[in-house]
Every structure is written in C-alpha cells, then in structure tokens.
Design brief:
Layout (H helix, E strand, L loop, with lengths): L1 H25 L3 E7 L2 E8 L9 E9 L3 E4 L11 E11 L5 E10 L4 E5 L3 E6 L14 E4 L3 E5 L23 H4 L1 H27 L3 H14 L9 H19 L8 H9 L6 H19 L6 H17 L16 H7 L1
Antiparallel strand pairs: 1-2, 2-3, 3-6, 4-8, 5-6, 7-10, 8-9
Length: 341
C-alpha cells in the first residue's frame, strides 16, 4: 500500500511538471497591457518569432466594468498589411460582473523580416452614475495600445552552411533533335496554334452567352457539388457571393469583385440600373455572406437555403431582356415562324 501511495504522488508530481512545461511553451509570445479608468486592454501575439508561412495568432481582450459601453475595432482595422485567415469575436461576463470583449485573429505575414502589430484603438463610453459619458467635446474615451514588433524568419536559417558543390562532369554530346533548332521551332509553332484555336473557341462560346446564363451555369455547378458541413460553409458562401459579384460586373459593368461590400453597396445606391427592391435584396444577401465568411457565423440549413434562393431570385429578376442580348435567346421554332408569316 505504501508503494502505491508513493507511485501516485510521483505521477501527480510528473503530471504537474509536464503541465507547467507545456503552458510555459504555449504562453511564449508578445503582449502589451493598457488601462484607462474602468477599462483594461490586453493584446497578445503568438508566437513571437514565427517562420514565414506560420499562422500568427493575435488576441485583443478588453475588460470593462458594468455600465461601461466598449466600442471594439472594426474587422481588420489597422491590419491591412497582413493576410487575415480567420476572425472570431466573442463577448462574455466574468465572475465579477465585468464584460469581457475578445477578438481573435489568425494572420499570415506577406514576407519575412521585421513586422509590427500596429497600435490598436479602443473607445468606450462611461455610463456609470455620476460619471461623464466622455471627455468634453468628444464622443468617447480612447485607449491606444502600444505596437508589438516582431521578426518573421525565412524558411532557410542564416546558420545554414553554404557549401559549394563539386564541379559537374563533362556533358554528353546533345542528340540530333536537341541540336537542331528548326524542329523545336516547328513544335513551338504547333503548340501556339493549338492553344490559339482553343482560346478562340472558348472566347467565342462565352461571348454568345449572357451574364445571366454564365451565372446560372456557375450556380448550378456549385449546388451540384457536395455541400460541406455547417461549421465549414465559409468557402461555399465565398463562391456563392462571387457568382453574384461576377454577374453584376458582366450585367451592369460594376467592378464589384475589386470592392469591399460596403464600398460596393454605396455605388449600388446611386446606380439607376437597380431598383430599391433589388438593392435591398442584394444588400441582405451580401451581408449574410460576410457574416459566414468573416465573422465565423455558423448558418442553419434554413439560412443556407434562403441565401441560395436570394441569389437565384436576384439573378432571375435582373437578367437581360431579349432586346438587350438577342444572341442569348433561342431561335424561333418553325411553328412560330409560320404563324408570323
């Protein structure tokens, strides 16, 4: 019995050491803390020395006392130099009744070298009794965190030895085909001719199709492919919104694929091509797609079908008429021709 008790103590000690070692490794990163009155801000970056291609995890945590309204940064604010892979916002209440706001980003650096997570601006309004809502002549209090500089290492470490390889042996005499440039010129011209023919045929086929026909074909192709689970619907909504955006570019010459949703909707409001009904339908559809793509929203089966139906309805109700695109209309049947004659 004594040996069993000693073994249990040893196992508990070993588990504690392993847990401490694991936490010390995982917590190795950069952080900065700021506070102004009833609001505390903690910014953390992991890891502190990533390799190029490694995910960079950024966590912004704001803790506010009760009756203090916090205005968190907009999605991607001040992070335009990084590629945003994932974004998860959260809000909770701790045991002391404080509201905890959290934004988690997964980023990727565009290149190796020196980088900096820029200063992050947090605003809040103090609604506690007897307190000023904001400083005089201002809308809210402000907290500006410190920037977090870090280095992104290249895949090849600087300590790698740069040894020169020995000289190669004597090259063998090239074959007759390799030494005759005329043969290669003929082959190259033949390949160019085949590629030109295929490109021309593809262009001719696509030029006779209307924007609605192209979008309808792409939509049916998307719906016929296996549909992912609800928690992994982000790529599906990316493809769905891209179909509508490309349709808008082909139908109304709106350069929507190059604009953010907010900027594009501003242009739509001033466009004479879309009525208010279709503007509202488009706005609700794109906002629903952005929730799934950027805010980590998990859609229900009903909301997925509603988004698909909204896209289909928008395409059908704004498609070209026969006068606008006569090439996309099917030819008249013999029966109709006889009637008209």
């Amino acid at each position: 019995m004594k040996s069993i008790g000693e073994m249990r103590k040893w196992l508990s000690f070993a588990s504690g050491c392993f847990l401490f070692f694991t936490l010390s490794i995982e917590s190795h990163g950069l952080s900065t803390d700021s506070q102004s009155g009833p609001v505390q801000v903690h910014v953390e970056v992991l890891p502190d020395a990533p390799l190029i291609g490694d995910p960079i995890r950024l966590r912004v945590e704001v803790k506010a006392e009760p009756e203090v309204e916090v205005l968190m940064p907009e999605f991607g604010e001040a992070l335009d130099r990084f590629r945003i892979v994932d974004f998860v916002p959260r809000e909770s209440i701790d045991d002391s009744g404080n509201t905890v706001y959290e934004q988690r980003y997964t980023l990727q650096a565009p290149a190796s070298g020196s980088h900096t997570i820029p200063a992050i601006l947090i605003e809040f309004v103090d609604r506690r009794p007897g307190r000023n809502l904001a400083p005089q002549n201002q809308d809210a209090y402000e907290i500006l965190t410190e920037g977090l500089p870090f280095e992104v290492a290249s895949v090849m470490p600087e300590s790698a030895e740069a040894e020169l390889a020995p000289a190669l042996g004597r090259l063998e005499k090239p074959s007759a085909m390799a030494s005759n440039p005329s043969i290669w010129i003929i082959v190259l011209l033949a390949l160019i001719g085949v590629a030109s023919f295929l490109a021309f045929r593809s262009f001719r086929r696509s030029s006779t199709m209307s924007a609605w026909e192209i979008a309808h074909q792409e939509l049916e192709g998307l719906l016929s492919s296996p549909r992912p689970q609800a928690h992994a619907m982000g790529p599906f909504f990316v493809d769905l919104s891209d179909i509508v955006r490309r349709y808008l570019e082909g139908r109304f010459s709106l350069r929507s694929p190059e604009l953010t949703t907010e900027r594009f909707l501003e242009l739509v409001v001033g466009s004479p091509d879309l009525g208010r009904k279709h503007q509202s339908l488009l706005r609700n559809f794109l906002n629903q797609c952005d929730l799934v793509k950027f805010a980590g929203h998990i859609p229900t089966e009903e909301s997925i079908e509603e988004a698909i139906e909204a896209a289909r309805r928008f395409l059908d109700e704004t498609r070209e008429t026969a006068e606008e695109n006569p090439l996309s209309q099917p030819p008249m049947s013999n029966e109709i021709k006889e009637t008209t004659t």
